Recover the amino acids of this structure.
């Protein structure tokens, strides 16, 4: 069996956890990621410095006997101090400022402002420590051997630039979960450069500075007679290797900061394309990409609102009427249609209101109406309107049916049967008619409704009054039975012939043989 489980990537990486993670777990995760990021960045910088100082720019050599105190005393002390201050104290102070995130609450404006400063503070701290290393070791090595000043300055400065660039990208990556909380709280960070700045910095540190280094190696090697062609070759190769490796690393980190937000939007779009509009992407980026994520959420929110309004609209006027109105530009007026009409009128609603509280009456009527709506829609009819405690249903408009008369008759029998079993405390007279009506939008251009007007509507209402004598047996006009198929007609029998109230012609009235649903 193939597993369909996929790791949660709300923030673009499984390392960052999910948006549902809170409290201490999130703090530990952020602390570990920040510390690991700075350790990795500084380790890469140290390797660059060692490679450049020993192989990349071998001459003049730093391994001179009288510089032992720099190698074995000053350098370890400074590195240890930088580790404690830059990594230990730096990450601790940042996570301490994120106390609100650990308490699972939204930040205040002041706390959000402090968070926005946190990545810059850590990056500046790394830059300050490496700038201190540039000054300190340039002076120390320069005191013992002045020829080492250009070499030490370039080696430490270039390594520091690599560390700062990598640190910035990794710190932003590690703080994505907290950035998402800040943005969700309504504090969007002010963009400083955005994606373009990230790209330029990556190129500058990964390619620009190493290229400058190659130029300098060639320049100084040309004017130093003791520099051999092999020394130049090795130096260029090392600098090129550093450019390739650091450039690749920075390109990957920079592109990841771009592709992760885009991927989250793409996944969201795929979900929407599959019909799921109950989806939001986590906004964690403060650049133009964050605007893209927020824009996607706004779009999906609009789709959800549209579907909600469509659903409400369909509940008010009927699904088919709503679909027709949304597909075309609705206008006033109508067209002649031949339809089946069912009119259902509650018996004893006045006594029901007197015996029960208003909320109980509403609950009883809702149960009553749900039976009717379910039966009508199962026969592809339209519940056109609720008139107090009565219901008017239409079969054959706005959606045409092959046998609208049979659908109306079958629905009437089912309603009578279900009311007896599902709503025993309420009964109703049910009348069915059939004939030509005008179906369309009636009212004013500012406010109208879909309805049907014609003699079959009046006839079904009169028949429902007669049907109150025996609510278990719906009554139908002879026209409805003549139009229905033989299978449905056999379920009805002629009951009487009379002149309905408000009519001048006699109506042949049929009654259902039983009140059961379709067998």
């Amino acid at each position: 069996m193939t597993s369909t489980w996929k790791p949660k990537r709300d923030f673009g990486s499984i390392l960052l956890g999910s948006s549902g993670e809170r409290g201490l777990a999130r703090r530990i995760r952020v602390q570990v990621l920040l510390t690991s990021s700075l350790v990795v960045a500084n380790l890469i910088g140290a390797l660059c410095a060692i490679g450049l100082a020993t192989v990349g720019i071998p001459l003049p050599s730093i391994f001179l006997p009288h510089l032992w105190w720099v190698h074995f005393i000053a350098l370890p002390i400074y590195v240890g101090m930088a580790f404690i201050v830059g990594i230990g104290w730096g990450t601790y102070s940042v996570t301490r400022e994120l106390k609100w995130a650990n308490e699972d609450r939204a930040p205040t404006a002041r706390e959000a402002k402090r968070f926005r400063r946190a990545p810059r503070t850590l990056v500046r701290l790394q830059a300050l420590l490496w700038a201190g290393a540039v000054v300190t070791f340039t002076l120390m090595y320069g005191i013992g051997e002045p020829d080492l000043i250009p070499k030490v300055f370039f080696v430490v400065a270039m390594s520091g630039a690599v560390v700062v660039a990598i640190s910035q990208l990794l710190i932003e990556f590690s703080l994505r979960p907290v950035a998402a909380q800040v943005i969700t709280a309504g504090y969007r960070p002010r963009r400083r450069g955005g994606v373009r700045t990230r790209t330029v910095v990556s190129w500058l540190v990964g390619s620009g500075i190493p290229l400058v280094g190659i130029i300098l190696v060639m320049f100084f090697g040309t004017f130093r007679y003791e520099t051999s062609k092999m020394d130049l070759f090795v130096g260029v190769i090392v600098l090129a290797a550093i450019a390739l490796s650091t450039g690749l690393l920075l390109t990957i980190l920079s592109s990841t900061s771009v592709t992760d937000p885009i991927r989250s939007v793409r996944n969201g779009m795929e979900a929407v394309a599959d019909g799921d509009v109950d989806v939001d992407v986590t906004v964690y980026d403060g650049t133009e990409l964050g605007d893209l994520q927020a824009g996607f959420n706004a779009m999906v929110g609009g789709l959800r609102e549209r579907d909600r309004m469509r659903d409400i609209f369909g509940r008010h006027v009927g699904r088919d009427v709503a679909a027709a109105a949304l597909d075309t530009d609705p206008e006033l007026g109508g067209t002649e249609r031949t339809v089946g009409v069912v009119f259902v009128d509650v018996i004893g609603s006045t006594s029901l209101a007197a015996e029960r509280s208003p909320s109980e009456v509403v609950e009883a009527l809702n149960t009553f109406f749900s039976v009717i709506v379910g039966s009508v829609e199962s026969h592809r009819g339209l519940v056109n309107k609720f008139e107090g405690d009565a219901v008017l249903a239409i079969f054959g408009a706005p959606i045409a049916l092959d046998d609208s008369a049979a659908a109306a008759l079958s629905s009437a029998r089912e309603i009578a049967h279900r009311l007896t079993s599902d709503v025993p405390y309420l009964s109703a007279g049910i009348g069915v008619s059939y004939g030509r009506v005008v179906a369309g939008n009636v009212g004013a251009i500012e406010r109208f409704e879909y309805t049907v007007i014609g003699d079959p509507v009046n006839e079904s209402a009169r028949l429902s009054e007669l049907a109150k004598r025996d609510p278990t047996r719906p009554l139908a006009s002879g026209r409805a039975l003549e139009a229905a198929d033989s299978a449905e007609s056999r379920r009805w029998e002629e009951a009487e012939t009379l002149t309905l109230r408000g009519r001048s012609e006699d109506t042949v009235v049929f009654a259902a043989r039983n009140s059961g649903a379709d067998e």
